[in-house]
Amino acid sequence: MTEHRTHPQEAQILALIDKGLNNAAISELLYCGPRAVRQVRLDNGRPPAARNSWRHAHPKEREIRQLLGDDLTDAEIHRRTGADPSTIADRRRLMALGPAPVPKAKSRPHPREAEILAELRAGGTNNGIARSLGVDKVAVARIRAAHEIANTYESRRTARPPVEERWREHAREVDGGHMKWTGPRATNSSGTPVLRVHGSWYSAAGLAFRIRTGRDPVGQVRAECDVKHCVAPACVEDEPGRQALRRTLRRIQGLPNPPTGTCPNGHDLTEDGRLDGQLHPYCEGCKRDTSRAKKQAAKTT
Length: 301
Prior knowledge:
By secondary structure, the protein is mainly alpha-helical. The chain has four domains: about 80 residues, no CATH class; about 35 residues; about 80 residues, no CATH class; about 45 residues, no CATH class. Helix content is about 45%, strand content about 10%. It has 14 helices and eight strands. The strands form four sheets. Strands 1-2 form a two-stranded antiparallel ribbon. Strands 3-4 form a two-stranded antiparallel ribbon. A two-stranded antiparallel sheet has the order 5-6. Helix 2 crosses helix 3 and helix 8 packs across helix 9. The longest helix is centred in the last third of the chain and has 17 residues.
């Protein structure tokens, strides 16, 4: 027959049993296992405790509730009070505080933070510091934000030549004061001289017009000389200038003024009246409507 050994806390366990506490409550108060409490109860002829028996509050109940109100994590409250995590979680549920906050990971200082900080305070940019020190630009941005240093930006492509200079690289003067275009052309059948600068397409004739007048053209720009696709600034005109020049030539030749009012199709000739290269009047509105009708017919066929 094995010798019965008493539990070291048997007297305290029996006192709490006599007060009506159940095994789980006694286990929490004395930091002993529920099975040990159950065995002491059996060895001393005490009846099993009801599951809904009255329980004492935790010895550090007030401190636990205060720390929960301060939004500490369960692990931190356990470290400070020694309370079981399940007890802390139960108090959190009873106080309707929601899930426990997730502890934030501690960020380690960058090994070259002092150098980065010096460059930032000297006005360096994130990309520039990353290149010069061989570090990640994201780390530079994080250190900038942590020390509340205003952001600085580096201008890209500061040595970009103006569009007009690029135009002059492809414009070659020929006999008679005209200019021939040696650069790229439109891929359609027109072969219009074009220029691509900084990701944008420009009309070579339009740039020539801007070089001569200092303003952007209105409408399509074309050469008014006899040289096809001439890009000489003196030869190109936008739509208003081209029409004014043709009206002047028509007067010099003694031709009557172009018709006014409306065309047979009802377009206002004050707005849509034009002169072609042979100085013949025509209606731009009628021409526009005809072009649209052809496109629509091509889509339906």
